[in-house]
Structure formats: C-alpha cells, structure tokens
User: Fold Linear gramicidin synthase subunit B from Oligella ureolytica.
Amino acid sequence: MLGDSNECVFGIHSHHILMDNSAWPVVLETLSKTYNEVGQPMKVRYPAAKPIFSKRLYEAQAEKEAYWKKRFSTPLSGFYLPDVLGVKTAKVEAFKKSHVMYSELDVFRYIQTVKLEELRPEYGDLTLAQLIFEFGLFLLKKVGDNYIDIVTPITDTQMEYQLDNLQSSGNLLPIRVSGKSDGIFSSHWEDIQTQIQKGMINELPYEEIINVTNSNRDTLPTVLVTAFDLPEKYINLSDIQAYYLDIPPLKSPYVFMLAYCFDKKSRMIRFELTANEGINHFVAGSLLEEFVQLLSVKPNEIRNLQEISKGQIVTIDGKDSILKLVMQVYSEVLPRKWQIHDNFFNVGGHSLVATLAVGKFKNQYGLKVEMNDIFAYQTPYELSTHLSSKNQGYIFETEKKSVQAVDITEIDLSDVKTGVNYPVSLLQESYLWEADLGQDTKFNIPFVFKINMDIESDILRQIFIDIIMRHTALRSLIVVGKEDNSLYQRILSAEELEEQYWFSSSFCNDEEEAKTKAVLAGGFSFNLISNIPLRVTHLRLKECNYLSVLFYHSAFDEWSAKIFIDEFISFLVDRFNGNLVKKSWSKKNKNLQYVHFALEEFNNRENILTKGLSFWKKRLGILTEEKGLVICLDEKKSAVDLKDTSEKYTPICFAFNNKEKRVLNNLAVETKTSLFQVVYALVALSLYKLGAGEKIVVGTSMACREDYKYHQTIGFFTNVVLQKVNIRLEETFSELLNRLQSDILEIGEFNKIPFPYVVEKLAEKTAHNICEYYIQMHPTNPLNIRKKIGNKLLNIELLEQVVQPSKFGLHFEIFDEPLNDEKALVFLIHFNNTKYSEASLAPLVSVLKGLVSNIVSIQPTSKIESVINSIDWSSNDI
Assistant:
C-alpha cells in the first residue's frame, strides 16, 4: 500500500525459463476473472512441466540446418557504434527533454510516442518487418557497413495457453538487413518479411542456429527489435482502475533494444529504445528521436498526405494533386496497396504495365507522361515530383474523371457492320502471305488448360460465343481481292458464326487421352478465308476437363491473352451463378475494335510508312546477311544444309533463383532501367563473347498499344523491332544499359512499321536471313487461375504446349516467375534446328550462366571490357 492512500503497487514476477510474453495476457485475464468472481467456488490448477520446443526440435532437422547455413553464409555478427558515438562522447543536448528517459543501473531507456497520422502513409500499418528493415538501414548509414544482423523474439503462435499449461515457447530469430551485401540491395521491407516467415518455418533454437552458422559467441548480434503489447488492456477489475508502471531492465546484453506498440484506441504508436552502458545515453536518445523523425512526415505535409491515404479528393494545384493521380493510375494498372515510395519495377511493374499507365495518364486524365518518365522516376513520389515541375496548375478531381478500372462490359460495337470488306491492318497485310493465309502453323498460338471440374459443353460454347461477339478480330474472315490480290477482312454476324465449325466437345476415357488430344489440337492448320482465327476443343472427364484454345496470330497477341482470360473467367462465373452476360457498353470510355484500328491506319498509311521507313533507314542502314553464331553452329547439320525442321525439338531450358534475380533487378533499379534491359544486355554480351561481332542485330517485340482506346481490344498489335547493339568496350555497364533503353524508347510511334516491310525495304537483295537473334521477356503468367465460386474452388491450370522450332536462329525467351524461389527467372533458348543443336550451343549457355553468376561483382561503373573478361572461356571448351 502507498501510505494511507487507496492505491497500491502490485507486482508479478516470473522467470523467462517458465514463461514468455505470450503468457501474460492469460495471467492478467485470469487475475481479472478471479477478482470479479470473488466469493464463488474456484478450482485452481497448476502448470504441468512440459519440455521446451518438444514438438519442433526434431522435425526435419537436417533441412532446417541447411536453411540456416545457406541463409547466413557468413557467421552472425554484432553491431557497434564508433567511439565518437559511444561513452567517450561529451554530453549531447540534442535529445528533447519532453521525451521520457528512464535510467536504472547500467541501462537507459527512451520512450517517444507519436500519433499515427504523423507517420508517413507507408507506415500507417507499421509492421515488425518494416521496423526491422528501417532501423537496420538507419544504423547501417551511421557506420557504413554492408549489413547488420538483428534478432527478434518469436513465440509459438499455435500454442493455446491456459493457466495450467504456461510455458516458454520463446526463441530468437536472427535477421540480416543488407545495405549492400553480396551485390544485393535490400530494397524493400518485404525481403525481411520473407526472412521472418521462412525463419519460423525452419525454426531452430537460437543456440543451435549459432552453432550451425559457425558464429563466434563473442560477436553475436547486439541489436534486438520487437513489438509489445500494453498489459493494462488485459486487466479489468470491477470498480478499480489499473495503470501499468514502466520498469526498465536492470542489464542488457544488447547495444540497442527497439520495441514498439500500437494502441488502436488512442491511435498512438509508442517507441522504446533501450541502450546498454556502452552507449552515451544522450547520443542514444538523439538516435531515437532522429529515427522516429525518419518515419514521420513534416508538419506541413501531414494534411495533404492524410487526404491521399484516405482517397479523398485533392483539388489543390501542384505536386499533391499529381501524386494522388499517380497513385490512382498505378493502383488501376497494377492492383495492390501502393505506397508513395514503392518502386514500380520492384512490385511487379514492367513495360506492358508501363504502357497501360502512359495511356491512362494521357487519354483518361489529360496528362502527358512519357515511357522514359516511368523508367527514370520509378516511385510514385519521384514521378509526381518530376511531373509537377512540367504541369504546374494541374488539378486532379476524382469527381470529374473516371478512375475506375475499365469494366469488361465497356466495349463499342455501335458502328461495326457485318458483310462489309474492311481493310486489314499493316501488320496483317505484311504477315498473311508469309503465313500462307493461316495454313502455316508456326503462327499458331495454342493454349491447353486443365480445369478441375466438368463443364457442360453448351455453357462453355456460349461463353466463347459471348467473347467472340465482343471482339470483331475473332469473327473476321480474310477476303482476297480478285483483281489485285489485295487483302480485306469481313466481320461475321451472329447467324454466320453459327455456320462456322470452330467448337467441338467430346468425352474421353482417361486424362492421358484427353491431354494428348488437347495438345494435338494446337497443330490445326487454318484457312483464314473460310475459318475464323479461333478453334476450341473441349475434352471431358467426370472429374476434370481439358480445353484446347487455339488462336491464330493474325488476330491475337500476348496482350490479348490477358483480355481473353479475364473475360473467360468473368463469363464463366456469371454462368455458374445463373447470370446472363451484359450486352451493354459504356459511351464514356469506348474500347474500340481491331477493325477501327485498321481503318485508322488505312486512312494514314502512306504517311505512316514513309516516315517510318525514313526513321528505320537512318537507324539501321542497309541490312546484310546474318550467318549466325558461327562458333556454335552444328557442323554436321550445316554440312548437309538441312531444310526440314519437323524433327523432334526441345528448347534449352535453365533457370536462376530468386537471389540471383534480385541482383539483376536491383542493378536495373540502380541504373534506372528495367530487368528486361539488364537481361537483354547480358545476352548481347554473351553473343559478343562468342564472336557475333561489335554490331549485333537483335529483334524484340513491342506491344504497340500506346493508344488507350485499344487497351481492351483483342487483335494483332505486337510487332518485331530491330536494334543494332553496338558493343563499346570502353563504356560502363550503366552507360550500355541506358543507351539500349534510350534506343528502344526513341522508337516511339515508329514501332508500328511492320517488321517484314522494314526487312523488304532495307535488306540487300541477296540477303535472306536478316535477324538471327531475338530476345523476348514475359511477365508473370496470368493464365493460371484459382477462384472460389459459391462453395466450389475453380482451378484452371495452363499446361505446357508442344514447342515449335524457332522462326529465328536463336530465340531467347525469358519468363519472370516471382512466386518460384528456385526458378524465379526461367530462360528458354529456342533454336533453328537446321543450324544448331543443344550440344553445339553449350558454350552459349555456359557464357550466359557465367555472366549472371558474376553479376555480383558487376557494378554500374564496371567497364564492358572487364565484364566480358570476367568469363573465363575459350573455343577449346566446345
């Protein structure tokens, strides 16, 4: 008791061997319940001793040890401030007296409380991973080290504590925060979140982790970061008010212990920094204040950033208005919870998404944004700062502009006529004769899906009819003019579509039969004069279906695939729910048809071709015969001059793990380019290393969808563009990347000049093989779907299709797979099997793998000559 007052101090003390922090809520809630039920019979049960970690120690021990050895390839280490910031420092007055400081023996603890609204929007839901990441980088900047090891306490989250089974499940989890270690920049707190999750999956007692990682016990981590809860919320005593008294630890084995607590009721965040006797307590207090300020907004920023985070309308001029617009557009083209400092390319952005964003900025909101702006200013904050300097006075109001993502029902069919000969697009005109009007199957685009349920064929057929009727490209036939062989397209009506044979459905005996038939269906040879460019084969089993969906390239491209799958899933869900597909479209946001695009081109074709040819002639000069990568040619095949490419063919496949991909991606971020440009450059350098020459003609594809009104249009827009890659040994790697990117971005509207037309006009008469090398990168596959419908789970899986030999000599196809740790970046090398073989291309694979492996040592300032020489290879390795 405190004298004669009605207050008392009540203390509860326990040893950590018996209890951890997760047990306190149980103790305090039981105390409250016991007090409030005084006078009633009560049974008291005492805790039974249980072995610590009994259920976790011996599960998959070897795998867990392997994880920690790999995670910490170098031993755990401590963190120490320089002497100038330690106890030898003279008194520092920077720490505000308004903040709380507790002193007890050899420990000082500092407490600072801030309102949630005072933190930057990205810290509105401050997580432990974010705090570890930010505090780690904060300390690294003070000393300039490459990395810092931090420990955080964890408990068994699956343990359901009662008063009779209290025990300690507590453990320490080591986390490594990198500033720059092994070439990896820890550019996002999600890296730390992954470490925490994987660490808990592979949990071992901290003592064992120390042994497994060969760590010195004299230099273990000296920084601990944790979250805590305020205990008073668990005490509820009738007619009694309870307050929590701060009791700092008497001693601390850590240089710093940082803890935080979020009180939802008061919307306050409390930070506590405990420093041991090795730190000058005034310096430590100043560090806490500086760190919290780092997480906070400036007072004059609070109002506008609050409005942005709440999604309210900002009608003021300048940067805040544009920042809100950038956040809005990015949320539409790449749905996620965006923060103002998120890097566009680190969270899933790529050139196709950037194209979507540019179109939305221009056509939907009247703000001119260049593709290069998105590459150069990679966060919403950076981009808005740049744009505000060019667009002073711009006002973005959500009430005046549509900010909703385009609904799939918004499509314009109002002026499309059937039975009329429309012009084909320039791309179609250039490729259709080469494709033998559809009979050449190398232009087939086949998909084979496995669906985890049986769908009635009538329902499935009607879904495809709904899609076909929405997109004129899928119900158009090619018409050949009788007099001059000019090409036209004619759109079929619903009645004419019924006369087409494009859909078949049948039952199969087993999955092997169904899968085989589905794959074979992808080899169908079209006659586009009489066949629409789509063919669907439905193969049924009781428990699942296989579905072959075959498009012809004259009406479909990679961008179209995302449109198709979105509509297919939407219509399938509608049918399962008994709803009819809406036939209306919006006049507000017209998504035009491919025939509109063809008409637009036709009315301006001479100007397009004349200006385009002038650009490409200046860019490429005269195109000469490409002999191929001579050192990798298969001499046996070259000797007999094979023409038949029908022999069994398998592309070369290899992959890089997530750590290696992150190195590449972080290099792209540092140089303000993209992952594609880094990969593109490494492939070009590999070709140079093997004798492709100093000027390498490389093809790549461009979406050609800059115009927003065609973003939801299925059709053939994607074109191949050529680039002469000049390898300059005196350049730095950063200069090469930026030059390659500038060359691509400068193409602009000239990307629509058909590749065959450019080749025809610029190639020497005797040249037949103009483009030997082709590089293409695909974003995350959108065609694997898991969706809940009622009480059923719909699972649609895209299966691998039969691969055709390359249209080019060497076709590098790269797949970005962010959900696969071991195969995060997959390379397929397709090759012309009349010239190359898997064995003959072994040097190319070796050099390319070597460059990626050596990327750790490649800096943006590294000279190209040193990058190339880092690969130890000679012709004797063949």
In short: The radius of gyration is 32 Å.
